[in-house]
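Bug #77: duplicate submission created two jobs. Keeping one. Sequence:
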Amino acid sequence: MRAMLSLLLMSSPVWAADIALNAPVTAATLYPQGATLTRSVDFAVPEGRHRLIITDLPADVDAETLRVSVAGARLGALSFRNDAVPPRDAADPAALRAAQDAVTAAEAALRAAETDKARALAARAGAEARLAFLAGLGQSEATAQPPEALRQILEMIGEETAAARTAILDAEFVAATLYPAITAAQDALDRARAALAALVPDTTDRAWLAIDVAADAAGQARLTLTHPTWDAAWQPAYDLRLTRATGTLAIDRAAFLQQDTGEAWRDVAITLSTVRPSEQTAPSDIWPLPLQITDPETPQPMLRSAMEYSPADAVVVGEAALKTATADYDGLAVSYAYPDPVSLVSGPEALRLSLGSLAARATVRAEAVPLFDTTAFLMAEFVNDTGEILLPGAQAQLYRDGTATGAFQMPLVAVGDTARIPFGPIEGLRLTRAVLDRSEGGRGVITKSTERNEAVQITIRNLTAEPWALRVTDRAPYSEQDALKIEVKTTPAPTARDIDGKRGLLQWDVTLDAGQTRDIAIDTRITWPDGKVLR
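Kept job's structure:
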């Protein structure tokens, strides 16, 4: 059984009246995982001390994180239960009797409206039966009567048919006019039952909250409740649209919202935040690192059977709405305030909201990795000078000159960061990488060394009808041991080496005209002492 919390902020008063209130969600701040919900309700408060009864809170509300405030009255004691809710105290049955009478009256009003509707539908059914009878009568009497009698029969059928059709129209009109009355009666009944449930609550899946308030004079007041939930989340979404002719990159932002709190959100003010309360909030602890020396041990080989082999051993370690939200970046996180209230049902359904579009200037070029690929790829590099963070984790949809080219897992791009976005292969830029010569052998008895030579040729062909700025990336081995000598010669010389701090990576920036072919040669000579094994 979950615990009952009773927070007594002042001595319990004698209540003048219990005020039953529903506190629906009116605002929500969603995080990538979780949300903070705000519930606000206005109510009339008489002079004196009273108790507000709230019974529509979810049962999983945590009393320790629930925050309550009242504007227009003084806040007193709070009593919260999410299990074993007691029935209404019979010592003050007036409010209970009034609530029960209100439910009875609302049920009677609804029955009366539904009865009037049923009468209208019955009148329509009777008129339709008369029409069917008149149609059959006309067919049966048409050939068995003399002309004068037949004329009278037809006149009678015509008059009665017109009267029946008029009766049908009148019945349908009456039934249609009753729909608003039935809807209003149903709404009144729902409100009356909610007020009764607040006094005698059914708490199988709801929590119960009693709040003592006091007012020096009658007036209007507002109750506000805030509490967190883990049953809601949002995820960013991007459409990245590149226009090659102008180098313009349009960044269409959106958000997918989802909640599974068990209650429908209706006309809720939505704020989307990049704060992650479910993740680490403080720096990690660091512990001292003591070292010690011991006698050396002779390593022993470990025999492994085929059954002990693990595949891991083979791993080489190395829119819904058109309106847009307003972004607020404080240097720590981004929040988006959506301009209109949002309704979202509980469950698997996701709602997409537009967050607007940003624009950036991009450097467009082809990039090639001949070691692994046979074609070059179109890349757009840009500096995020939009003033907003681009959020990670989203599956961005890519469009090149209006054509969809695939999807891309969006990284975090902070303000001022540089990002590279792929826009698919360029089939007309063909790549080949061939090892032309590989030899290995001894270099003499005196030096006791061995040698390996390798010649690699990269060929890039531009089969398109336009020139391309192309960046080619390849690699050459490197050594961290003095005894292992590696000499690398390239033709032409690379534009850059050790790219992004990765040793051995080589990069060439070239321009290929339409129909042009370019070659890049990488010659490697590796020597090491005799008796050693190259790995």
